[in-house]
């Protein structure tokens, strides 16, 4: 019996908009540089000797297979049920080489992966399954033509692998090492919906979080701050969803980076065109701005905005009058300006300076006239 898990119908545990702007007071510190620079170094180290083959298969082809293998034992007649998962990847993808790669290239890649340093946090079972799968895939490519294919006879390599459930953590570990982030996330999401995945949740979530970190790195390298921020936030969510992953240093690094990047990401999202498909992300950005403003006015140490007049002025320039009024009520503005001198006397930063105050005042007046609301 076999059944297909359709990935398109499996929602992510939390939408990126929900977790994108979770600006909590994370007290853990100690890492001085931005996370994306560390991940870039990590990726270069992990992939330096691997030819990355991008995803060519549809991850929606993931199948969970029940195989009833009745193996007659010489001593008894007991039946053994083996749980197998079919994953939509080729052996070439597992070891990170191009299709129809030469045997020496395959052997070199396998040896590099075998000797590579495993990311901290995986269980010993995952490490063992990774090595077992690596050797199994090597043998299939070298000695079993159906898995290797034949370029001369135009026979493609077998497009899927049947592996024991216990090897799935090793498979995702290898796939994220060689750059198959999308496959890692798609297969991981589908597998987590199945009860057989329960013993392997820790390792599956870790591979998915590392894949999101790799996606974040690509976003930062393209100067797409919001893409990188969202990927880091998804990685944070994955790590937080399992208690055993909560103490990882990776999580504290991600949380610090999210705090550092929140202001820049907020401005980038507010500057996006006002289109229906971006409406939810804009609401999230305004919510983030409101939270940053609260942190700034409360003089919280976790707030990473260094130049408040400049930051808030840029943010207000990207908002409509209605949004500014909802962000800064008149009573709020009056109290803030009233307390301005006391803040300055305490040598504290001024969050809403005269320029920002005038912009907010103009928004209130403009909205009041346009909507004929005398109280504005």
Automatic annotation (TrEMBL):
Domain Plastid division protein CDP1-like 1st alpha solenoid residue range list: 163-309
Organism per entry: Actinidia chinensis var. chinensis
Record GO cellular component, one term: chloroplast inner membrane
Protein name: Plastid division protein
Cross-referenced PANTHER family: PLASTID DIVISION PROTEIN CDP1, CHLOROPLASTIC, PLASTID DIVISION PROTEIN CDP1, CHLOROPLASTIC-RELATED
Domain of life from the UniProt record: Eukaryota
A Pfam family reported for this protein in Swiss-Prot or TrEMBL: Arm_PDR
One of the protein's GO biological processes: chloroplast fission
